[in-house]
Amino acid sequence: MFKDILTTEEQFMELRALAGKPSVRALNKVIDHLDDHCREFIAKSPFLTLATSGPGGRCDVSPRGDAPGFVLVLDDHHLFIPERPGNKRMDSVQNILHNPNVGLLFMIPGLGETLRINGKAYVCRDQELIERTAAYGKTPLFGIGVEVEECFAHCAKAFLRSGLWKPDTWLSEDSQPSMPKMLADHCKMPDMTAEDVEKALQEGYATRLY
User: Fold this and answer.
1) Dihedral over Cα of 122, 124, 130, 135: its sign
2) Contact indicator for 113, 154 with CB cutoff of 8 Å
3) Is the pTM above the cut of 0.70?
């Protein structure tokens, strides 16, 4: 299917020569702790993605979102992400039990630059942290604790190229893919229509966010 793929370190070095070397800024921007800049970014971010990998190296990226400040910064090296109700697959949790290495990407709507954090994750049921991250009277069942190893800002080029934060580039509602239709087709349940899925999704969004 794919042609001319790289499989050796030598090929990588050849590609590195063509791509060029990273700037001194790119090399030096990585820090090993949550400084005041990182803390401010996390406090103002309502959304992040969590990358994990499980047995055999299979990878998964899962979104996490809530009001800005929903992620707790505990100290310079630890943060806590409350687990809100989702689809109950618990892919991230299972992966973390097999491989604690994770990557986080924090975003702030309208800001092109992002904050990347890499480290070790733990499935955490610390009652104090759970109570501190309650929302709308609902406490999470557990959370993901992260021991921070690397923090660095990522440039805005991908956001600028995609126009992600520019409403005039967004698809009109009638041009967007039909997620209820996709789910109905993928689930292959004969008695479940796209209309049924749409109704279930909207009911869940209205009553089971927390």
Assistant:
1) positive
2) yes
3) yes
